[in-house]
């Protein structure tokens, strides 16, 4: 019942804001056009507003699942008209807030406080920022040494889980329909993608998980001059409340302020690429929600700019095999070795084994060759993605659910690079990093690192080595003894089988002779004698058969 109500709510919202007008009528089947006329009581109530404003308001009204979809679209300036992209960018930190006093009560209940001032010297009920799932308030934390620290408190929106669950259930239904009816349903794996999206979105509702992610990222980039992660006060964090150091930075989308302060935009853009590849290939742990609303630039050193990251609800991880294949694919792309790219896709199982390598190589070359040796501003990655999608369809390439977050993060990185420094050579910036990483994985450095990582374990096991060696030798001796017994038994069984076969053949011959004599002389002394001999031969065959015990020959 809730799913039906939510479906009606979504339909009503989209039609009330006239979003059906954004889709050309020729693109819709007649059934959809007929269905639109069936909802005659839901006219466009916002005809006076531009299309971008209507889309933004509709997504805000529908809630967090749809807001996050709009956030991703806002970074795709090459796919959307400028007015729509600008409006969607407002979704990043301008979602209407909920009551600040309600947020205060949530904090007091979660932390077990009689009053919020028992823990915080100051708390501002007016939100500093409001996002789709949570909002942020400022305050001052009383430390144990009596000092006051500027902090922000993130609070999950009340009753947001019910809305998210309803939307996700509807998405799962639509994914099942798509998987069943779309020609590419099996390859695109819509059900698996929605399942992965469900996990990601529900993980974002747990601020203890986000606190852990922030602590891990901060440890990975300790003393880094590329990325700073604020301190998380985990003692004051709960599943729906998180307390974190307040940062002072410039939003990365505020290009005018960055330029006015003399920030080195080229270095800033290059460091963004390096931060991404470091997270993916060095740490296998990356911030997967890097839209402009979550990224700031420190004010302290404009010529040596450093990023500040916030909002760690969505992170991605890669296993060793996926990371290795990705790195090799990137390097093959950078070196324009399209045959290597095709072979890697087959080896990794991303395309079927029966794929024609030569044809696949040619198709990849056709798509990718035009993008090289061009500044970022001249590259339409939207067109490249469309061409790659068509190539994937031709060669039955399957969607990899474990890479969905990585793909989304790559889109964000491109969007940031386009805004910060359009002339950025993305390939030139990333290639040296990947080459260095591959050398560390395959060369002598990899051996040294492996020895260093395993040395403590080996040292711990060293006193046990004599006993382990003795046990291994004793087990080997027992195995050898058993193998000898098995070989003897096999030889005995073979002899028994040969003897039994001999008597069985004689029995068969005796039976044939007895039958012939019966036909010629009927019941005579010779026939009776032949029958008795045949019976005796059969008894011998039965007695010499291989014996079995517990379904095994003995």
UniProtKB/TrEMBL annotation:
Database matches in HAMAP family: UbiB
Name of the molecule in the record: Probable protein kinase UbiB
Record domain ABC1 atypical kinase-like: where: 90-345
GO cellular component: plasma membrane
GO MF annotation list: ATP binding; protein kinase activity
Gene: ubiB_2
Pathway: Cofactor biosynthesis; ubiquinone biosynthesis [regulation]
Function noted in UniProt: Is probably a protein kinase regulator of UbiI activity which is involved in aerobic coenzyme Q (ubiquinone) biosynthesis.
Membrane topology term: Multi-pass membrane protein
Subcellular location: Cell inner membrane
Entry annotation: catalytic residues: 289
Residues at which ATP binds: 128-136, 154
Keyword entries, A-Z: ATP-binding, Cell inner membrane, Cell membrane, Kinase, Membrane, Nucleotide-binding, Transferase, Transmembrane, Transmembrane helix, Ubiquinone biosynthesis
Assigned EC number: 2.7.-.-
Transmembrane intervals: 497-518, 524-542
GO biological process: regulation of ubiquinone biosynthetic process; ubiquinone biosynthetic process
CDD domains: UbiB
SUPFAM superfamilies: Protein kinase-like (PK-like)
Protein family membership: Belongs to the protein kinase superfamily. ADCK protein kinase family. Belongs to the ABC1 family. UbiB subfamily.
Broadest EC class assigned to this enzyme: transferase
InterPro entries named among the record's database cross-references: ABC1_dom, Kinase-like_dom_sf, UbiB, UbiB_bact, UbiB_kinase
């Amino acid at each position: 019942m809730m799913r039906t109500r939510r479906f009606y709510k979504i339909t009503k919202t989209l039609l009330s804001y006239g979003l059906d007008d954004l889709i050309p009528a020729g693109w819709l089947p007649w059934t959809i056009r007929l269905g639109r006329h069936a909802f005659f009581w839901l006219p466009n109530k916002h005809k006076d507003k531009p299309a971008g404003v209507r889309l933004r308001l509709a997504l805000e009204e529908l809630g967090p699942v749809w807001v996050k979809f709009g956030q991703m679209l806002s970074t795709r300036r090459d796919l959307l008209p400028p007015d729509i992209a600008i409006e969607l960018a407002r979704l990043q930190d301008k979602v209407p807030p909920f009551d600040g006093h309600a947020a205060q009560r949530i904090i007091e209940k979660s932390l077990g406080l009689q009053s919020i001032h028992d823990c915080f010297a100051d708390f501002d009920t007016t939100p500093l920022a409001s996002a789709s799932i949570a909002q942020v308030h400022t305050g001052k934390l009383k430390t144990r040494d009596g000092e006051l620290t500027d902090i922000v408190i993130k609070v999950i929106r009340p009753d947001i889980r019910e809305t998210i669950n309803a939307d996700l259930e509807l998405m799962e239904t639509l994914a099942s329909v798509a998987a069943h009816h779309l020609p590419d349903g099996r390859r695109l794996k819509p059900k698996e993608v929605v399942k992965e999206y469900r996990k990601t979105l529900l993980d974002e509702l747990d601020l203890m998980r986000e606190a852990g992610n922030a602590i891990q990222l901060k440890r990975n980039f300790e003393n880094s001059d590329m990325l700073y992660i604020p301190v998380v006060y985990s003692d004051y964090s709960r599943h729906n409340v998180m307390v974190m150091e307040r940062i002072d930075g410039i939003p990365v989308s505020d290009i005018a302020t960055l330029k006015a302060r003399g920030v080195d935009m080229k270095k800033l853009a290059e460091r963004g690429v390096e931060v991404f590849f470091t997270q993916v290939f060095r740490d296998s742990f990356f911030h997967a929600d890097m839209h402009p609303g979550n990224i700031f630039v420190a004010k302290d050193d404009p010529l040596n700019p450093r990023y500040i990251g916030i909002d760690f609800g969505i992170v991605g991880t890669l296993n060793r095999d996926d990371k290795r294949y990705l790195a090799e694919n990137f390097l093959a792309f950078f070196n324009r070795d399209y045959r290597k790219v095709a072979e890697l896709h087959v080896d990794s199982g991303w395309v079927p084994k029966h794929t024609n390598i030569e044809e696949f190589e040619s198709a990849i070359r056709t798509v990718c060759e035009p993008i090289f040796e061009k500044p970022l501003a001249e590259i339409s990655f939207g067109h490249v993605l469309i061409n790659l999608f068509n190539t994937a369809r031709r060669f039955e390439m399957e969607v990899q659910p474990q890479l969905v977050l990585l793909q989304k993060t790559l889109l964000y990185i491109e969007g940031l690079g386009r805004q910060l420094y359009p002339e950025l050579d993305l390939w030139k910036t990333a290639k040296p990093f990947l080459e260095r990483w591959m050398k560390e994985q395959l060369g002598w450095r990899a051996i040294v690192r492996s020895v260093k990582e395993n040395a403590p374990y080996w040292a711990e096991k060293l006193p046990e080595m004599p006993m382990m060696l003795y046990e291994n030798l004793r087990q080997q001796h027992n195995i050898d003894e058993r193998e000898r017994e098995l070989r003897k038994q096999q030889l005995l069984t073979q002899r028994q089988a040969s003897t039994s076969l001999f008597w069985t053949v004689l029995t068969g011959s005796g039976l044939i002779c007895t039958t012939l004599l019966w036909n010629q002389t009927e019941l005579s002394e010779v026939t009776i004698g032949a029958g008795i001999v045949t019976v005796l031969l059969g008894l011998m065959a039965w007695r010499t058969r291989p014996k079995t015990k517990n379904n095994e020959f003995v």
